[in-house]
Amino acid sequence: GFDLMEYFNVKDILGTRVDEGQSSYVRLGTMPIVQQTEDVFPQGLPDEYAFVTTFKFRKTSRREDWYLWQVFDKYGIPQVSIRLDGENKAVEYNAVGLTKDAVRAVFKNPEVENLFDRNWHKIALSVEAKAVALYLDCKHIATLPIEDREDIDIQGKTVIGKRLYDSVPIDFDLQRMMIYCDSKHAELETCCDLPNGPVSITGRRPTICTFGSQQRGPQVNCSCPAGDKVKPPDFTTLYPIYYFHG
User: Fold this and answer.
1) Per CATH, is 2-237 categorized as 2.60.120.200?
2) CA angle, corner 177, sides to 176 and 178, nearest 5?
3) What is the dihedral of CA 131, 83, 195, 126, to 10 degrees?
4) Which of 114, 149, 164, 221 is the most buried (most CB within 10 A)?
5) What is the pLDDT of residues 31-72, one digit of tens each?
6) Is it the case that residue 154 has pLDDT exceeding 80?
């Protein structure tokens, strides 16, 4: 699996904080959190995966339109992203399409609106070949169809927490950000790390997959090894971040 906080070295660079009743976390927004994609995902992303994060909006970010996570190629063209639209209270998954420029799944309903406060929340997205499912605080919100996706181009950059229209770093608190090789991990997540959070009905704690492991029976082969841990990026020589309008 991919521990994005580890690969971006955010705990070492920004330091950790402690909230009462909460695990340690990092406060982002003071500098860009960017890394070369080939250093984070040397073999790209698996065809199906789960994205899991525990985070909290701050006063300003809850109304912003921004990318929680985004991968873009060397020309600045987005490859995959999770967008949090504070104005419309929506969660949007975007990916480069196989037969079109981009495919997307937009989650917007009263339960999703609850995400945009200043409490700790957990987002889990199950990304499969034909569908994307959203789990919010361990509750299944919706499963939406999605058109065929193309493999991502790893000759670019991966970024955490940037504003959509000008790429300014976003102020928010981040406790955890993981990508698991098995899309089913999204529904297996528990919310023990949330204050008074519910526990998933499975009661099973997902484990981080490793190369060749089989977490959910012999039919699952986790074939997306993470790369070696890289050195912290030099934030004084970062390449500019471009947003593709198209």
Assistant:
1) yes
2) 120
3) 20
4) 149
5) 889 999 999 999 999 999 999 999 999 998 999 999 999 999
6) yes
